[in-house]
Every structure is written in C-alpha cells, then in structure tokens.
Amino acid sequence: MNKLNIVRFAPKNGEGFYDSLKKDIDEFFKENNIGPHGNSALRWKTVAMLSLFFVPNVLIITGVGAISPFLFFGLWFMMGLGMVGIGCSVHHDSNHGSYSSSKTVNKIIGDIVNLVGGYDVTWRIQHNILHHTYTNIEGLDEDIDSGGLMRFSPNGKKHAIYRFQHIYAWFLYCLLTIQWVTYKDYRLLFIYEKKGLLKKEKITLRKALLELSIYKVIYYGYVLVLPLIFSGMPWYYVVTGFMVLHFTAGLGLSCIFQLAHVLESSEFPLPSEDRKMENNWALHQLQTTCNFSPRSRIMAWFIGGLNYQVEHHLFPHISHVHYRKISAIVKRTAEQYGVPYKVMPNFIYALRAHGRMLWKMGR
Fold it and tell me: For residue 344, what are the β-bridge partners?
C-alpha cells in the first residue's frame, strides 16, 4: 500500500512561544468566563447562512424566480454566496469540533456539507489532517497541489504553461466546487484508502462510496433536477444558473483559502532526508500562514473568521467567533518571542499579493 510519507516536526525544547501562548489564551477564557466553542451569535449565523442557500433554492423550485431572468440568476448567485457562508462559517467550525462542546452537535452541523455537494469524510482528511498538520509542505498539503494545472510552491515542478497562471488561475478557481460535486470526492476516497487514511475516520472504502453516492443523488436531486422540472424556466437557464452558483462559490472559497498560504511572504519548508522538519509545529504554522483584513468585522463575520488564519491554525479547536479578541494575545506573544506574525492590511492587498505570487511561481 502507498502509505502516507509523513514528516516529524522538531520538539518544543521546553516552555516557549506556544506553551506561553496557550496559558494566556486559557487565562483569557477563564477571566471572561466563556468557553472556546461557539455561542448564540454563531447559532444565529448558522440560520442566516442556511437561509441564504436554501431559501433561494425553494424560490427557484416553486417558480418564483421565473418572474424575470435577472431574479432567476440572482437567486442562483445568492445560493453561491450561501455555499461560501456555510462552508466558512458553519461547517468549518463543526468539522474542527469547535462549533459546540457536544460531539453530536458538531457531527450534525458538520454533515450539512454533505447536503451542499461536499463530503465530510474527505474534507476532514484533506483539511484537518493534511493541511493543518503539514501546511505548505510539498507532497503532503493537498491545498498547494493543483493536479499539475498550476504551481503554488517554489518546490513544485516547473512547466512553460505556468507563465500564464496568474491570468488563467481565476477561471480555474471558479471550477473548485464543480470538482467537489462531480468527481473529486470519489478520486480522494481511493487515494486515501491507499494511504491508510480512511481508517483514521473509521470508515471502509465501500461504505464511504455508498454514503457519498447517496449524498450526491440527494444534492443533484434538489439543486438541479427539481429546478429543471418545476422552475418554469428553460433547461439551459437552469444549467446556467447552476454554473453561476458554483462559479460564485468556487471563486469565493478559493480566494479566501489561498490568501492565507500562497503569498510572497509565505514560506514552504521542506523536511530533511530523514523526514524531519527544522522547526516545531507551532513555528511552522507562523511561517506558512498569514492573516488579512484584521479590521473588517463584516469580512470576519461572513467568512467565519478565516481572515484570522494564524489564530485558526494555532487553535483550530477554538471557534472563529473568538479569533478577533485572541488575535491581540497571539500577536503580542509572537512579538515577545521574536517569531513571525504575518498580516495583510486588507482583502484587496492580499489578493494582489497572491496574484504576484502566481506570477512569480510561473517564472
């Protein structure tokens, strides 16, 4: 079997940055008499994000959207925004176990991703295990593996076509969720079975394929088949609307996650020949991760605090509703220990920095 060729991070070498930071973070929650999980604000946000996706879907199916093409496609666009909101603000916390102190609640909320075209099993492996553990390490972090279409890391292979990736990347980003709802989850299941990663999720390949197929049938049934039958619009309008949904969600999700790790300031460390990393895990996260738009509360609300990626990578078990407040603690402690704390001032600045990184990697 093609087992996962893992690497080992350096030991912490006594009480340093991360141990000190954890003490300060624990003290913050104790002093404020609050827990690290989500709160009522997160529950209300869950209602808002689910409504942003499912209410337009109901209006499309019931024929309300047929009043005008503008309204019809606008509803599909809203569903795309809702998919981004669900992925970043609802499902993301729950699959990290930070939505609630209840494992049952986290499981139920996390399973929502199955109803919007994804699959919770492959997500947890790709995101929680691979990306969060081996951030920006070539060959292990699948978030910097484009399947040969682009080059995100200076350690990646070079091809002549990559000279234009800063131009065509944005179109490929639009296709991100199209991959999810069609073939990507199936492909990942076979890959993870060979690497022995499905065992970590306590599921067999056969069961996973059956579950995934059932979820896909449900998804296509209410998102595509029912609108084709009942929306009152021509089939090509429905198919176009479906693409609007996924172009919106794909571009939005790609930009949110890429701005945290694929920048000129990002580092892409490689292990030694004996598969050991030079730094410990916490310092590795600081080297490879960047925040953006720290002052935008609207941005933080909609994308589930993922503009505070440094805090999220250091404390994925803490709900995003606390990131803004604990970010001051993380920044202060990083300065005390002389370790990097990377921040981009706003979304546009970070987007341009990502574009420059694509251009640079293409050359």
Answer: 292
Would you list the DSSP string of 2-22?
------BPPP--SS-HHHHHH
Cα distances from 98 to residues 42, 299, 312, 314, in angstroms, run 11, 20, 11, 13
Instruction: Tokens 């309300």: give the residue.
Output: 64
Q: Give the phi and the psi of residue 309 in degrees, each rounded to 5.
A: -70, -30
Q: How far apart are CA 244 and CA 6, in angstroms?
A: 39
Which positions ≥6 away from 77 have C-beta within 8 Å?
244, 245, 248
Question: pLDDT (tens digit, 9 = 90+) per residue, 43-68?
Answer: 999 999 999 999 999 999 999 999 99
2: left (phi > 0), else alpha (psi -120 to 50), else beta? beta
pTM: 0.94
Helix (H) or strand (E) holding 318: none
Beta strands in the chain (DSSP E): 290-292, 342-344
Domain boundaries defined on the chain: 17-361
